[in-house]
Each structure stands twice: as structure tokens, then as C-alpha cells.
Design goal:
Elements lengths: L15 H4 L21 H4 L6 H7 L24 E13 L4 E12 L3 E7 L4 E9 H5 L5 E2 L1 E5 L4 E10 L4 E11 L6 E8 L5 E8 L20 E8 L4 E4 L3 E6 L5 E5 L12 E4 L2 E6 L5 E6 L8 H18 L7 E7 L6 E2 L4 E5 H4 L8 H17 L6 E3 L6 H18 L9 H12 L14 H6 L3 H18 L1 H14 L3 E3 L1 H9 L18 H13 L2 H9 L4 E9 L2 E9 L10 H5 L6 E7 L2 E9 L3 E5 L7 E3 L8 E4 L3 H12 L5 H16 L5 H7 L9 H20 L3 H14 L1 H5 L9 H16 L3 H16 L11 H8 L3 H13 L3 H12 L4 H13 L8 H10 L4 H10 L1 H7 L5 H9 L7 H16 L6 H30 L1
Parallel strand pairs: 1-11, 17-18, 18-20, 21-22, 23-29
Antiparallel strand pairs: 1-2, 2-8, 3-7, 4-5, 4-8, 6-7, 9-10, 10-15, 11-14, 12-15, 13-14, 16-17, 19-20, 23-24, 24-27, 25-26, 25-28
Bound molecules: zinc ion.
Amino acid sequence: MFIFRKIDLVFHSSVMANSCRKLVFNIYIGFYCSAVIMPQKGICSQFTSSPIDEFNKDPEAFPVATNGEIFPWHELRLPTVVIPLHYDLLIHPNLTSLDFVASEKIEVLVRDDTQFIVLHSKDLEIINASLQSEEDVRYRKPGERLTVLSYPAHQQIALLVPEKLRADLRYSVAIDFQAKLADGFEGFYKSTYRTLGGETRTIAVTDFEPTEARMAFPCFDEPLFKANFSIKIRRESRHIALSNMPKVKTIELEGGLLEDHFETTVKMSTYLVAYIVCDFTSVSGTTSSGVKVSIYASPDKWSQTHYALEASLKLLDFYENYFDIHYPLPKLDLIAIPDFASGAMENWGLITYRETSLLFDPKTSSTSDKLWVTKVIAHELAHQWFGNLVTMEWWNDIWLNEGFATYMELISLNITYPELQFDENFSNTCFEVIKRDSLNSSHPISNQAKTPTQIQEMFDAVSYNKGACILNMLKDFLSEETFRKGIIHYLKKFSYRNAKNDDLWHSLSNNCLESDSTSSGFCYSDSKKTSNTLAFLRENVELKEMMATWTLQKGIPLVVVKREGRSLRLEQERFLSGVSKEDPEWGTLQERYLWHIPVTYSTSSSNEIHRHILKLKTDTLDLSEKTNWVKFNVDSNGYYIVHYEGQGWDELITLLNQNHTLLRPKDRIGLIHDAFQLVSAGRLTLDKALDLTRYLQHETSIPALLKGLEYLELFYRMVERRNISDVTENLKHYLLQYFKPVIDTQSWVDEGSVWDRMLRSTVLKLACYLNHAPCIQKATELFSQWMESSGKLNIPTDVLKIVYSVGAQTTSGWNYLLEQYELSLSGAEKNKILYALSTSRQQEKLMKLIELGMEGKVIKTQDLAALLFAIARNPKGQQLAWNFVKENWTHLLKKFELGSFPMRTIVSGTTSHFSSKDELREVKLFFEYLKAQGSHLDIFQTILEAISKNIKWLEKNLPTLRKWLLISI
Ligand SMILES: [Zn+2]
């Protein structure tokens, strides 16, 4: 799943910055093997006796089913005595009455005698269920009718059999059922779109991850229960049906209905099953290995599908080659769904996307839109291996799917789209999660998750971003070649099966396939260099032990460096933002934290990258030569923050001012990041960090320049929201004065490299936001021309949002934009307009937007979370959005599930930027009230911690900021 979306709004939040996932405002604003050889130790060890024995001993301890009878199973996880092998599914959705009728036959293997079968089922009406033994099937005997018990609290049904099912035998369970097409975004749900002619059309689509396949058909809805699926779909002739596999044939039924039969799938988890009934059109192409790739969209958006086709053909070729494993299906469809909760979902062979994550409109999609679309395609395609072919055993290790897919975005785009210069963007992936991971309420990458809500909460920045960052660190440590071999080994070994953390570490440290291993334990084909790295690794570190410190322990380490002559003293501690060493809780929060950190450093005396593994609290290194400076964490590849004690920071600041190019661009970005992080932990004074940014006027790397600017803008937004007028004015003045040369040289045309274009968007957006006269004038001019042309004028895409935002400040402009919003067929443009509308300074306009979002017609419900998020970032809208959420919580809960990404975005998006004690008290009270109502999320604690951190930051640093500005302007 793709859940994260970078937001181009800058805010001081420790929560949303890491977890804003979907691209809402595009700028950026988601056991085993074959049943026969199932290795059951791990699974069965949890049961000390068979479920039947347990049930017979104490039936009272079991829950009560809806009909008043005792439900024979009390765990959230399913029993493993009956496992599915094959599902035959026949589904008939009716897009007029908005419901579906369906039937299924599940072939199961019984591993131990039992008298019941427990399955997942949610909001389905079971009409009847029956059972046939293998013999019954052979002699075509009718099935025996089963009693069905339902226990909705666990989303389970139990099928009671009259006679015990016998171990090692196969049975066939037949179930007829029906339900409404769901209203939300999960299970088998309806989605609608408007045609150019103004007609509203309905489609039916599935979205199952993590636990919603059970809303579409009764099933063993856990990732470990892999099976094959044969799917048939009935439809009217005006529609088409799509599923994971290609269609084999279509049968015409009485009454003119058509029934499509799809090829049986490979063995896979239920959450990857997908089917869609729609009237979309497509473009297709074939990869060099013969896989047919098609991009589907609603008919009027067909012209926006071509970029996605080009990108997915290129990326699928890349992955087949990189993983040395063929994509196993004959086709791959990517489809843009008009109503979609996350960014995209990797269903095997039928990937579903939010429209803005797949479609590219040359007239209105900006360079960051292109980067986004390419990145989401790269992410979902990587999942066809990481996630689909090899799946985590349980949701606690979702990072094995998501961390890898996020990491593969970097690897694949670097090679397939070097012109996108994605490499220089990757450190932001790590910086985003550090905000969350440096709070005490963070969680380990591999974390316990039991209930559906807890499972949903696992889809967060820690699983995605931190997962990717520690993989990147490990690759840097092992070498790209060794790392790649290891993951190929992992993918080949666990194909069509499930894996856990340890399996990955084992594959990475024993990456020889049997065919090329030697007696020494090294791969014959390894280069000398790689063998040395491995030897180095084996002598010094156990990979599993090392990686456990990153996956089983939450947080991020701080490496404190002190140079004395030729000696470097290193010390590691847990980095906590918002807590300084003087605070009484600091000591307790440090207890038992220790990482095995593969540190790297460079010095003034050579270009060499030095490596060391810091396994202890403190360590000492000897430099071979005298140096003027030392810089740790080369290219920001490591997941740790560095503090230089003594003269360390001063030496680096001097270096930046004298000749910043002596440090690599990514090292400069890392220094800016770490300096401001250290301020929030009370280890560096704010004026020192601000002094470090003074060299930026000469900075030649755009990503480094943007990083510095990001912090200054963040402070501006914070003081502006709090209405601290003197600092706001002075900071505005400083920004416009200091960055004048770069602002003045920007053109209002789409030209230059990706980074040139990113710089243009960012700098002009800030300049207009700060009311810089030439910027406002140019944007106003373009907006008037655009209005006069009735929206036909092509405005350069990189400044489109800026022009709309300036235009939205007048009533006529705002109203016109809202009209265009309704008419536009480009999701990229709609995002820009919606963002612009949300920047209005008039509260009644903001309220109107929220009402439209709640109504879900003009502004789709899928965009409501992003809308509230954006309004909460507007100083005139922050209180409005927060009050709205408090007063409409139950209405919101009807639209989105509690743990879902949109709901988490809404709650953290409207609160986590707060920075006063009164606001903290209010949010706390509200969360306590929710908890009392039974609505609890782990993210609540993170939000409270983020607000406390903001309060402390302001208390401590506002006087310094005020003083620094006075001497700087
Ligand atoms: Zn994903």
C-alpha cells in the first residue's frame, strides 16, 4: 500500500510530517507454503491443546454468538487446524441496486480432527453453508448443510459440522452470501465519477489490505493463509470486469448478463485479491519479457494514462532484471480509481491507485506531480515481489513489505529515471520519520499488532520510512552487490511463502545460492572487495544481532563526537527531541538503549570514507593524520544524528563559509538537519544552528538550499500561527532580504532540471505567501489572464498552485476557482485548486469547503482529510478545523474507520502543530473523552508529546530567535 504523501506545506509537527501520506495536495501534501508442507512449528506452538479439547473443557470461557449459542473460538487469530488451499469465487455485483450476491467454494485441508471451521466474515449476510468431503465431491453427492454461528466482535463465523472432520483429509466448504456494496473505501465498495457530459456513473472496486477481504467474502483473512483463487464475475455488457489474472472466457447467461472467468491465481494472501466492475478504457504495452501492462482510467481521463504506461513498462523490466526473478503473472493492470482511501494498493496483477497517484496531465501536472506518480508506481511494482511473492508472516512485520517497497523506490528510480534526481531526495524520507522516532511514544519497526485498528496503525512512517532508511544504511555497510545478492536469495527462498525479520537477516548474511557457495562460506562469485566486507562483518558483527537493535528497539541514536588531537571519542545515547539532558526524565528514558551503529566519517585530510561499528556506549578511534575537521555520517546514509562537542560545530561552520564544496552536498543537507534537531534536544543553541545557515547564500546544491529554507519557513509559520507579530515581521523581512537574489532570478516558465523546477515552485510560493510585491503582481497578472481565457490559458505547471493561491484571495477569484474545481478532469489540477481555496483568509469560505467535503459531492470524501489538514495549516483556519473535528467526531467516524489513514490524518493534522499550554489541555481533554467512548489510538500519545515539544521549543528558543533576527536584518 502507498500511504505517505509529502505535503508541501511546512509545519512544525512531529506527527504529520512523518505520516502525511496521501497525496492529497499534491505537492505532496499508504505461513507458508503449500498446505501440505506447511512448517507448523511456529504457528502451532501457541496452542497447548487442540481447540476442540479446549472448548470441551470449558465452553463457558468462550464468547456468545449472535444467536445466543456459545461461539467455539475465543482468539482474534484464526485456529490453524483447518487451512485453505483453493477458493472458487463467483461474484455478481449490481451497480444499480448497489449490492452483490456471491457464492464460494473453499477447498480446505484439515490438519487435526475438528468439529468446526472458523473463518473471517464482516457485514456479510450468509444465506447458507454446506460441506462436502472429497468422496462427496467425487460422487457428486450434495453437500451437508452446516450451522453458521457469528461473532461480529472478532469478525468471525464458525461453521459447525455434524461429524468430526478428520485430520489430513480435504473438504470443500460452499457458502452463499450477499451484502450491500460498502459505502466507504474498504472491502467491495462503490465509487462514482462524473463524465464530461455531467452524468454520474458507478463502478464497484475492492480494497482489502489489511483486514477487509472478509467484507467481500468469508475467508481465512490472515497473510499466512496463502491459497489459489479462481474468480468469476457477472456483469452487464456495458461494463468490463478485471481481476488479478487475465480473463480466460466469457459466457453469456440468460437475460443478457455476461460471466467472465479468470485464470486461477498463483498462491497468495487474501489481502491481495482484487476485482473491479467498471466501464473504463485502457492503453497497453508489453515488457521485454512479454508481460502485458495496461493502464485503465475513466473514459474521459484516458489521455492522462500514457506517462504511467511508459513508467510501468520501464520499471517492470528493471525489477525483473534486478531481482533476477520473472514477474510471475501474464499481465499487470494499473487502474485509477475515483474514490480511494490511500495512495495506491499493490493487489497482485491489478494495482489500484488514487487518480493523482497514476494519471499525469501534461497541462496541469507539475514536476513534483511527475516525481510522485513515478515514485508510487515504483513502490507498487516493487511490492509484486516484496509483499506479494514473499509476504510477512504477520502484520507486526509489515515493514518487510513497506520498508522494502519504499527503499526500492530509490534503487529503481536512480537507474530508470536518473533525470528525476531522486537520490538527493531520499534523505528527506529519513528526516520525516526522525521527527516521530525521536519522541518517546514512537514504536519499534517490528511491533505487536492484534486488533484490526492496531494493524492499521502499523501503516505509518516507522514501517515505511524508517524501514527504508535502515535498509539503505545496511546496503551502504554491506556494499550494493552483497546487499542485492542477499535480497535475491531471500526472495527466491521464500517465494510464494511468508517470512519474518530473522529470515531476512539470515539471507543477507548467507547470500550464496547453493549453486555458487564455496567451502569458505563466501560466494564464489563475490569480488574480493565484497568478501572482505563480509569477513569484516563476520569478525565484528552478527548481522541479526546488529539489526535487532534497529528493528526491535524504538528510537534513533545520537552519536556524540569529541576530537582531541588525533583521537576521536565517540559516545552513543538515545536521541530525544523535546527532552534535554538537564530534564529529570532524561536518565530513565536512556535506560537499556544501545545500538550497533555502522558509522562512517570523512576528514579534511583525504576523500576516503572511514568505517567503524560502534557497539558500545563509548569508544575511541585514532586518526592516522592531523585534520582540521571531521564529518560523520557520510552522505547521510546512516540512521543516526551526530553532535560535535568542543570546537566541532565551529570548525564545520567555518568550513561551510570558506568553501562549502569541500563537503558533499548530502553531507551539507545532513549538517543542516542535525543542527536543528540538536536545537530541539537542547544540545545546540538556536543561534548556532541559524549561523550555520548563513553560508546558504553561496550554496550550489539546490536540495541543501531548500533544506535550510525549510527550517526558516517552518519557524515563520509557527510564529505566525501564534501571532507573535514582531518576530513574524522580522523573519519575513529576513527571508525576503536574504533570499532576494534567488527569488529575483526565478522565471515563471517550466524549464530546467527537476531541482531547478522544485526550487522555482518552493521559492516563489514562499515569496507570494510573504506578500512579496513582484511575486503577487506576476501571479495576479497570470490569474487574470487565466480567468479571461475561461480557464483555457496554460499556466506553467510549476507555478500553477501559486497563481491559484494568489487568485483565491479575492471573492470573485475564489468563486471562479471553485467552479473550475467542479469542471476540471485533472486530479493534479483539482489538488492545486483545492489547496488554493484552503488558503483563503475568510472563515466562511473555509467553512463552506468543509461542508462540501462532508457532503462528498463537489469535494469527494477521499479528499476531506487533506482538506482539513490544509485548513488547519492556515492561521485563519486552525481553530475552525479543530473545532469542527471535535464537534463532528461521530460523523467523521461514519466516513472513515478509526485507525484508517484518513482518520489519523484528520486528528493529527488538526492538532499536532499546536504550541500553547491551553491548546495542549484542550486536546488532552478531547482524547480522554474519546478514550472513555472506546475510541483510542496510539497516535494520541504521539500528538500530545509533539505539542509539548512545540511548547518547550518556543519557551526556550523564541528569545534567541528574536535576538538573532535583530542582529541579522
Ligand atoms: Zn506499500
